[in-house]
Amino acid sequence: MADAFERLIGALARLPGVGRRSAERMALRLVVKKATLLKELQAALLDADGSLVCCSVCGAITRSDSDPCRICTDPGRTSRVLCLVEDPGDILLIEKAGVFRGRYHSLMGRLSPMNGIGVAELRIEPLVRRIRSEGVEELLLALNSGVESDATGAFIRDRVGAPGLRISRLAHGLPVGSGVSYLDSVTLGRAIEGRQAI
Ligand SMILES: [Zn+2]
Prior knowledge:
The chain contains eight helices and seven strands, in the order αααββαβαβαβαβαβ. The protein has 198 residues and is an alpha/beta fold. The chain folds into two domains: 3-53, Helicase, Ruva Protein, domain 3, CATH 1.10.8; 67-197, Dna Topoisomerase Vi A Subunit, Chain: A, domain 2. The chain has a five-stranded mixed beta sheet with strand order 4-3-5-6-7. It has a two-stranded antiparallel ribbon with strand order 1-2. The longest helix has 18 residues, at 34-51. The site of zinc ion has 8 residues, from helix 4. Zinc ion (ZN) binds at residues 55, 57-58, 60, 68-69, 71-72.
């Protein structure tokens, strides 16, 4: 098989939720529909590369000419409550729920020694600095459920523990095995309103 095709499959297979088999099917379709699909994807990728970044403060997706993002610069939001999420996509989900008026911080993943993701790979030190400099009074852990997410939460609690800082988590009662990324906005909204101190 041509190197270019293998390279395309390899790149697609690195996307979340895409296995080798799906990547092969995608690559095949892209080559077959070269004039339409491949060109369109190429243009969209170039556009995204040129205009989208992760906010330098919270990590949310934003335009490169609007960094820090709208949430970080919104004077109507409070810096006293900081919501910690794993991925920028979780910020969008919580915003959809429409009940949270604080600010966000995305770790860009979770601790996963098996996959080589340690403390240095996550945005933990920037979190510690923000808590100190922005007058944060409550840190709301809105992490996913699972062994790695739980371990990440425990590590963060130890690392950021400061006098006067309340640490809370989403309400219990969420479906087993679910996390922020899998909740509908109503359930997520209730989980935020019913958050509990830990
Ligand atoms: Zn931001």
